[in-house]
Every structure is written in structure tokens, then in C-alpha cells.
Design brief:
InterPro entries: AAA+_ATPase, ABC_transporter-like_ATP-bd, ABC_transporter-like_CS, ABC_Transporter_VariousFunc, P-loop_NTPase. It contains 8 helices and 13 strands. The protein is α/β, with parallel strands linked by helices. It folds into 2 domains: 198 residues, P-loop containing nucleotide triphosphate hydrolases (Rossmann fold), CATH 3.40.50.300; 53 residues, no CATH class. The strands form 3 sheets. Strands 6-7-8-3-9-10 form a 6-stranded mixed beta sheet, with helices on both faces. Strands 2-1-4-5 form a 4-stranded antiparallel beta sheet, covered by helices on one side. A 3-stranded antiparallel beta sheet has the order 11-13-12.
Amino acid sequence: MLKIENLKKSFKNKFVLNNVSLEVEEGEILALIGPNGFGKTTTLNCISFVIKKDGGKIILDDQEFTEEEKYKISYVPEDRVFFQNLTGKDYQKIWSSIYPEWNENVFQKFITKYNLDLNQKVEKYSQGMKTLFLVGLSVSTNADILLLDEPTQHLDPTIRLEIMKIIRNYADLGKYVIISSHEIFEIEEYADKIAIIKSGEVIYKDYIDDAKEKHKIIDSEEKITSGEVIGLVGDKILIKTDEEIGRYPKLNEIVVGYLNSKNKVDIFK
């Protein structure tokens, strides 16, 4: 199991992450969801040691994870920034030398499928090609932990579906995958768990299927006798209840309800 316990990070004495705790089992995909600037990317950066955390622990298989074990992590950052003048072949050499379980067969198949020119400078790739190239590098590492920030950004719909399947297949190898994405409808297709982050805190986390079963969408005039009011979803209300009322929500409605959790309506009067 991969566990993130009480992760903290502040910038200029302002908390960006406040006791963020997450768990991912082998073969699972956890999706971080929330507004821009509220801690998703910072969480990934702390896990990958891109930035130094101020507190908390990262635990892999009951052992605290250290910076010396970074080769067990592969990361596709949201900012597709590359070194100047390095070709795809240069990156191939660098990554294959860093990761002890590098899979050259996977890499070559990926490059061939998406017709990526390894002799071209990567900085000259289109935005979509940069995303594809980074994903291709990452799934070729065979790293235990795969971190992906907006992994389908700038891709056309057909390729998005293919990349989602590739990520799902990678997780099924017994890996730990954490993604950050605004594409909630995509997340619903291939992720196992969600963690909704708002203002640097996890306000809700669960398996996607369980989350749908535990919540209902009701009209504001409907009365319930038990449960918890979560928040507004348009002119509807998201509630957490076992009562047979309303209808089951879609994932995007759960996310919106929790992000609007301050906008509660008293429906018990």
C-alpha cells in the first residue's frame, strides 16, 4: 500500500496543504479533484520530492519512502517543460539510465504507435505530442508509483481514450497510480478512487462506486428523515443517506456538491 499521511506544505506562512492523507492499494488509480490552486499539483510535487514537504510521511509497503528511492516514481507534470536542444533520443537515454526496470519494448511500441520522431528536439513537439511523449516515457519506466498531472491534456478524443486505457493497464500491473485532472467524466471511466481537495484539505475521499451508492440527488422541496446535507448542485441538493429517496448522483454531481458544501440548505425543517 502507498500511504500519504498528514502531508503539509506552506508558502510564505500560508498553508497550501494541511494534513492531506491518502491511501492507494496496488493496482488502484486515485484521482485528485478540485479547483485550480487548491493543492492537487502541490500534493504530487511533494510526493515526488519536486518540492520539499513541511510535514507528514509517505509510506510505501510499511516503510517510509525517502528521496533516495525516487527511481520508484515516474511523474508527468502539468507543465510540459523540456530542456532546450535535447531530442527524443536524448531523453530515452537519460530515462533508461535512471530507471533500473526500464522497458525498451514498451517504449518502442509507444513511439511507433504515435509516430513520435526521436530525432526531433522535444521542445519543438506540439503540446499534444509533448504530453504523449511524457506518458510514453513514464509507462516505460516500470516504476512502482506513477504520478500524472492532467495526463490527457491537449489530446484529441480518440487518443484520450487510448491513453486512459494505457494508464489503466499500467495500474493493473500492480502499480500505484495517482492522477490530478479536471476531466471528471474521464476519471469516472478509469479511476478507482477520488479525493476532493479544497483549500489544501481533503474534504471527501472514497471509492467512486461506493461514493455513488452513499449519496442521493434530491429536489429542494423533498423531505428526508435521516442523512447529511452536503451541498447544492444547481437547483438540486446532494445528500448522504441510506434513505430511498431522489436518485443516485453522477460523479460530477458529487464533486460539485462537496465543493459547494458551505452552501447548505436546511431540509429537515
